[in-house]
Task: structure prediction
Amino acid sequence: MAGLKDKLNDKIQQHRPRIQKLVKDYGDVVVDKVTIGQIIGGMRGLKSLVTDISYLDPKMPFVEGLFYLLLTGDIPTENEVSDVVDEFRRRRIVPRYIYEVIDAFPCCSHPMTIFSSAILTMHRESFFAKKYTAGINKMDMWEPMYEDSLNLLAKLPEIASYIYAKLYRDGKRMQSNPNLDMGADFAHLMMKPAPYDDVARLHFIIHSDHESGNVSAHAGHLVGSTLADIYMSISAMINGLAGPLHGLANQEVLRWLQDVRDKMGDEIPTEAEMKQFVWDTLNAGHVIPGYGHAVLRKTDPRYSIQRDFCLKHLPNDPLFKYVDMLYKVVPPILKEQGKAKNPWPNLDAQTGVLQWHYGVTEYDFYTVLFGIGRSIGIAANLIWDRALLYPLERPKSITTDMLEKIAGIK
Ligand code: CMX
Result:
């Protein structure tokens, strides 16, 4: 067993009794109350999921190191990071049929559709599915999930960059460089010079994990709870991410900014003009993409990290100036409008500026980048789901009649 897998095994053995004790001795303890507002309002903030994988150190430069941290909770040494980098490198080769699946897509297909389908198609590679059919003991299920996860994560940069090459570069593609870590290899595959390697690492790291209740994480967990393999779960997660109220918002931010830019004829708007654009959007019944959050009630720290990077590396970028102005203008307007519970920006408000600056201007592709990062966090969660034997997720639904009775209306 490799170093990371050994260490993970130790952690799993230590953790399992904690869950067993909670269920056996404290199973009836009330954690949260459920209100009618929460039931109708999409279970916002309801404490009903478990994850122990939610804190990360964004200073860790290699994505592979972050995966180690997410799985074990320990900051890896340089050698431990190198081991994981090697593990990923060994698993990079994408099956031939995946290129054929990508090539077969009709023109104008959204890259997220292609990405999700390519991942799903690799279901036939799943060790987990094969072991399940052969009758694996449930205590051992995390192991093939671990193998599948590494196999899939290692291939995502190649799959994504091939989709990019096919859609936006007339099929002109690069071969993966076996000497590079995941972030640097992705920059190489995208044919982007430094510091795009750092941009890629930063991007994958800050998009990887965000608790369990957001739509993509929850979709991945929900499908995984049926004992579906990693390919099915991550494909489902990608579909959740593809909606405009979630991951696609980073594409929507750029679409919105381009619209403003077209109207301004490339001039930087004054603050008064920008305020007017924001109000026009709200008055048309649309949301301001990149602002608001289902749970956070302050500026998203992942927004701030990207903003700091922009301030350091591209303070004079015209698009950054737009986004910077929006940061001043939007929160007071959303507060004045009084609807959004969180008037502050989320991470999607900054993503596009960085990508655009370094030449990835095809904003349809931005959610695919999000998807690579998010897969890392979801895979870590799914391995732990299997290790801790978390059950099938199956909440109970009730009718409006029942709610009215509970509310005392009927
Ligand atoms: N612009 C305008 N109105 C907004 C808004 C925004 N950015 N954010 C919230 N509102 C509105 C909601 O549409 C809702 O209006 P109605 O009462 O008319 O339905 C009201 O404010 C209350 O919503 P909320 O409780 O503050 O927010 P939700 O938890 O329902 O939704 C989110 C959260 C992120 C979907 C919402 O803020 C939004 O639509 N933001 C813009 C899209 C976006 O940036 N999504 C990405 C989020 C991060 C991610 O997942 O990637």
In short: Residues 44, 214, 245-247, 249, 282, 287-294, 339-342, 346, 348 surround carboxymethyldethia coenzyme *A (CB under 6 Å). The longest helix spans residues 142-168.
